[in-house]
Amino acid sequence: MGDEGASTSLGTRLEAKRILLRAPRAIDIAELRSVLTRNADHLRPWSPSPPPGTNPVGFTELGRSIAKQRRDWKAGTAYVFVAALRAGREPIVGRVALTSVARGPWQSAQLGYWLDAASGGRGLMTEGVELILSFAFERLALHRLQAAVMPQNQASRRILEKRGFREEGYAERYLRIGGAWEDHLIYGLTAEEWKPVSRDVPREAFAHAEAHEREQLVVGSNR
Fold first, then answer.
1. What is the average pLDDT score of the chain?
2. Confidence band for 46, pLDDT divided at 50, 70 and 90
3. In angstroms, how far is CA 19 from the centroid of its own chain?
4. Fewer Cβ in 10 A, N or C end of the chain?
5. Closest Cα to residue 165, out of 193, 204, 196, 202?
């Protein structure tokens, strides 16, 4: 099990059969900008409204975001991973994040993720979420993860429910999305409930359940 006082290297790589998670780097800015720009319409219905006057996909803003994400990683307050395919040059296809990491009596974090629209329907984010759950409960020794998802985001709800998350409540006007305060469903999972998937589970076991999925942003953390 992990230790809340132990640091986690920025060189950490979490790998499944088809996808890997790693910390973002400054050299990722151009590729991330391309992915986010290409997916602007895909992510807009689920993404938190950026602060007025900011461009979340601009080079400057992405550079600041990555620098902050790496500082948070070192401080142990958040762990933002880029999700990349384990093929060729490992192209970036999304992001998986643990944010608002709280220690002391809480030992908890918020889970969020998004995936490139062209990569949906293949179970890739199911693999990514399984990796982050193992990281959270085994490496970081967290006790609880929480995720907030808009009720109409059925694909993200299926991913959470399939991995054992419980629907715990309905939060009205929880997060500002597209200029409007949107209601969200709150999901939770504790270490006692988590059942790790065998590393030997074939890809088809993920892909079958995700045949119609189009993964979206789950929780409103910064891109």
1. 85
2. confident
3. 13
4. N
5. 193
What domains are there in the chain, each with its CATH number?
13-209 (3.40.630.30)
Q: Which of 77, 80, 74, 150 is nearest to 108 (CA)?
A: 77
The number of beta carbons lying within 10 Å of the beta carbon of residue 30 is: 10
What distance lies between CA 64 and its chain's CA centroid? 19
Record the tokens describing residue 46, joined without a space. 């689920």
Alpha-carbon gap, residue 89 to 28, rounded angstroms? 12
Q: Is 155 left (phi over 0), alpha (psi -120 to 50) or beta?
A: alpha
- Continuous H helices in 16-162: 29-38, 40-43, 59-75, 124-134, 154-162
Distance CA 5, CA 103 (A): 10
pLDDT greater than 60 at residue 220 = no
- In terms of Cβ atoms closer than 10 Å to its own Cβ (0-12, 13-18, 19+), residue 219 is buried
Taking each helix axis from N to C terminus, what angle separates 154-162 and 124-134, rounded to the nearest 10 degrees? 50
Report whether 188 contacts 144 (CB < 8 A). yes
Phi, psi of 18 (to 5 degrees): -120, -15
Per-residue 3-state assignment (H helix, E strand, C coil) for 27-38: HHHHHHHHHHHH
Q: Six-digit token pair at 210?
A: 């995700």
